[in-house]
Specification:
It contains 4 helices and no strands. By secondary structure, the chain is mainly α.
């Protein structure tokens, strides 16, 4: 018996396992916005020059303003 079917079978199982289920936000963003929305959210989350971070609510508002 050759060892190649034993090696290929677990790999196929892993690929099938990961192809199912819920899609990540990155996949939705790439499909709908070309990958710009997550990059914008990360940019808005960085520290401001005055030293503080924006709240998640402020980030959401900033994303909706720039997305439309």
């Amino acid at each position: 018996m050759s060892s190649s079917p034993l090696v290929v079978t677990p790999k196929i199982g892993r690929e099938v396992k990961f192809s199912r289920g819920r899609k990540s936000l990155v996949e939705f963003d790439m499909r709908d916005n070309g990958g710009q929305l997550i990059a914008l959210a990360k940019k808005l989350r960085r520290k401001t020059p005055k030293g503080g971070r924006r709240s998640l609510r402020a980030i959401a508002l900033g994303c909706t303003e720039r997305a439309t």
